[in-house]
Amino acid sequence: MNFPARTTPRLTLLASAAMAVLSLSACATGPAPSAAAPVAQAVTPPPADAARAPGAAPGAAAAPGAARPDPAAPRPFAEVARDAKRSDGFVPVWRKDEKVWLEISKEQLGRPMLFSVNIAESVGERGLYASQMGPRWMVEFRRIGNQMQMVARQTGFRADRDKANARAVAQGFSESLIASGPVASAEHPERKSVLVDASLLLADLASYSTALERAFRLPYAPDRANSFFQDVRTDAGLTTLSAKVHYAVPRIPVPPPLPPGTPPNPAAQTTQPPQFTPDARSLFVTFVYNLRELPAQAMAPRVADPRVGYFTDTYTDLSDDVRANAKVHNIKRWRLDKKDPNAAMSEPVQPITFWMDRNIPVRYRKAVEEGILEWNRAFERIGFKNAVVAKQQPDDASFDLMDARHASIRWFLGADVGFAQGPSHSDPRTGEIFDADIRMSDVFGRGGRRLVRDDFYGMAGGEVPAWKAGLDALGQGHTHCTYALDAGDELGFALDLMEARGELDPDTPEAERFVQNYIKDVITHEVGHTLGLRHNFKASTTITRDQLKDTAFVTREGISGSVMDYNAFNLPLQGEPKTEMNMVTLGAYDLFAIEYGYKPVKSAEELKAIAERSRTDKRLAFSDDGDVGPDGIDPLVNQRDLGDSPLAYAQRRLQLSKELWARVQARQPQAGDDPERARRSLLAGFRQVGTLPVMAAKYVGGMHTDRDQPGSGRPAFRPVDPVQQRAALRFLTQELFSNDSFSFKPEFLQSLQQDYIEWQRTGPLNVPQAVLALHTQTLDRLMSPGTARRLLDLPQYLPEAQRKSALSLNEVYSTLQGAVWSELKTGKATDELRRSLQREHLQRLKTVLTRPAPGTPADAVSLARLQAVELQGQLRAALGKKAGMAVEDRAHLEEALALVTETLRATLQRM
């Protein structure tokens, strides 16, 4: 149902204002007084026709003592709906010109339904993009007098098995008002339903103004007068309204003045207006509102198991106080029932259908379809044929894939975007997934064809991109997947390396197949999310390094145990045989996870037996986002690694990056080259190396984790072998701290051009800055309170006979300091890279001694002081031999000595 484009001439605006005043008056207990007349004369008598007795002649006066109609009462249903067109469905919708009403029946009052908000159109920057799924609530309509409320039920606490506690839960935890508006009509004579002005939805229901303010630092507010409904769709069980909501600010404030000569700092600006709207004061966001009927027969919930990674709908069951943990975790999954329950292989009653957006470029559609249908391999193993179906939305389709009826793969664009993600909406009662909309940006085109600019992705991988900041503003950043972005980096690096080797021409069918495999891999990953699966960041380590070199094995089993990992590309070192480089099939863990979530089972014991297999089959190992964070302790849990030794992978990836850099430096620029080609290749290597410091540093003080349940016989925490810990420490301090790893010819750096057509230019490439970003990551991890605590605690986890061989905190501090300040012993000159590294180390040493972070062990402070005293002596000795020393070195060492002396004299301030 389409509405004509809205126009707002002055007369229309005045009429809208008048209608708003009348609408507000209808909400009051009586008519508002006139500003120009005494209060006693403010009430306007109703027309004589309205007050006459039934059957009286049109001009007859009302009989003395007859009851007058309540002027605040809603008008008759037929009068409000006159000339309006009704669209039947779950919640019927009436429309007349630009007016839209919802018809709410008595049966729907107090009846739970699912209300979801999706974002179909947005501003296209800083995380605020089109084709995004928004929030969902379980709501009910409530009539309070002549006011209709849409109230979100509280679902986080329940007491379904105890009536007394259920009353206490209702009193103890508040519900939320999502929207409200006046009842527009009296009850329908037969249906007993009422009309409610749908403009109650033309508000900030999704709290998008908060997202806008956090992204742009401007207080955008919804402007209902210039907001309107575009489309309405009603079906049995679902009503969808598409609304274009106008957000505005009256003015863009002037930034605060800066002192003369101070360079502008964009990060310090109080406001950051949108860059790509014609007028930053005004923008439109199109919301798709879905009112969905909940199933009369709720799906049987399936409990979560920590050994299998599913997203969950979680609540606290307060029905009794017997259980130690009152939390109930139901996995999120689609309802999937066999047409023939007795058949070994049967099609489902209702398949899981994904619609492919008509905006997806034709050249990618086959790979997207293959990524969707790849999951049928897992469902066939548990007896479902064609459980997952892919359909292409026709170009002339009248339906919107953002409604709650169609799970979809959506293609969207943005000025600063590069990701694909797969969120979903589910029934909070049971975890049943109703809707999922995978959003994929043109990272496939830009990443796959190397059109990504270096200032978009950042230099060494440490920056937070603008799109991620925007998603954080929506309160969703922590749940969002960056696999497409990371895989795009992997693809670019692989293409650059193979082209530099002369193994691949970027314009050949082989290169196109490589890109298509990458797309299929990403889509398979995101579809896995919409099937309910979490990330599994331990899966890549279940494939050995020898297996990765076996073409037959990786073609059959994959290069990783799961598509739900962030898998690196399987790139061979020079001279090694080339095998399959992408994850083009499901892994062993994926088959196992689908079996746990979707296999028809008859008992909890049968379900538990499935999960128990992970104890004996190492291919089914699982760890999720909570284990991989910056403070993760298991070196086998990483993003973007490959093989059973992440340390070996880190060494290989540094070697591959150095090879790419050497080849790019050796290649002579050719006429017709992209000016930024060499610059992008250099940064591609840095982005690869940027993942290595934390990956290797996890070994130092690391603990292997296991998710076995009590009674399995295996330890939950197991210290990393001290030999591996020391090997990782050597890699960090001898290879990543070595200038030889980042040596570039001056002629090469001089040749790195920039795009002079763009107004904003990056200037000469700052290699020391990129290297320092790697160094600071290493220092931060090795000198963190968490690493210190684990190293001090590790001996407690070891038998007495093994404690002497454990890596100690003192050994880490002394090894680190010796590597950073090695010139003090060798007497060699210290260049800019090394001086920057030494300053960063000294700053962190100062922090530990003067303002230690919360959680820093006292022994760490004592050992750091011991290292500082030793460093002070070494600096004095080096300055005593300053004959022939470069002035930069002498100035640097004198500054370092002054700082360490000042630090040792300072008073400790605990934070």
Automatic annotation (TrEMBL):
Coiled coil: none annotated. Residues 509-825 form the EcxA zinc-binding domain. Residues 43-74, 253-275 are annotated as: Disordered. InterPro entries: DUF5117 (IPR033413), DUF5118 (IPR033428), EcxA_zinc-bd (IPR032534), MetalloPept_cat_dom_sf (IPR024079), Zn_MMP-like_bac (IPR034032). Residues 135-339 form the DUF5117 domain. Residues 1-28 form the signal peptide. Pfam families: DUF4953, DUF5117, DUF5118. One of its GO terms (molecular function) is metallopeptidase activity. Keywords: Signal. Residues 253-266 have a biased composition (Pro residues). This is DUF5117 domain-containing protein. It comes from Rubrivivax rivuli.
